[in-house]
Design a protein that fits this description.
Length: 188
């Protein structure tokens, strides 16, 4: 009689579950995303339990899965798996569990907040470029003049440009100055 270890039992169950999910996905009875999140959670728990990656890979039921793999840092997987588990417990909606929805009525989606931040950084960088370029040419301009130029060229609101620069521009200018100083030290 063969003694079955917990590791062997897990691998056998994981392989069976993966085959079952593959069949359900193929039949259109299970969304592939659900299957992927669930299997990823199992893989992650096995890794956290000390199982070697090669052992887990050997349990993948499809040859393609065994041959086409990538290494992903556990630190990147942890929030995904934990969010999926939080959703699976039924405590939160999917977007709330993954913290990609606002988390309450009237709160902005994270995606919208990132888009606004990216836009503000772009506007701020344009102001910084104008200021640095003008100074480099020996004809410095005021921040107000730089804001106004961006308003005219890009069609943005003055207050939007000003706030973007206040939030990001000063820090960018400080970093540029620190870098210039570092380069100065190297070249002397």
């Amino acid at each position: 009689m063969k003694l079955v270890t917990n590791e062997e039992k897990f691998l056998e169950q994981f392989s069976a579950r993966a085959r079952q999910y593959a069949d359900l996905v193929k039949a259109g009875e299970l969304p592939v995303q659900y299957a992927c999140f669930d299997l990823l959670s199992s893989i992650y728990s096995a890794i956290e339990g000390g199982m070697e990656g090669d052992r887990i890979t050997s349990a993948y039921p499809m040859k393609d899965w065994q041959e086409r793999t990538v290494e992903v840092p556990q630190a990147l997987l942890r929030p995904i798996v934990e969010s999926w588990m939080e959703y699976g417990l039924g405590n939160k909606k999917l977007g709330e569990a993954f913290q990609i929805e606002g988390g309450g009525q009237g709160k902005r989606l994270i995606k919208r907040l990132r888009e606004k931040a990216d836009r503000d950084i772009r506007l701020s960088n344009k102001v910084v470029c104008l200021l640095v370029d003008a100074k480099h040419r020996g004809a410095p301009i005021s921040q107000d003049a730089a804001f106004q130029t961006i308003v005219e060229v890009d069609g943005e609101q003055y207050e939007t440009v000003r706030k973007a620069f206040q939030k990001y521009g000063r820090d960018t200018l400080d970093h540029l100055e620190a870098y210039r100083e570092k380069l100065r030290k190297i070249s002397t």
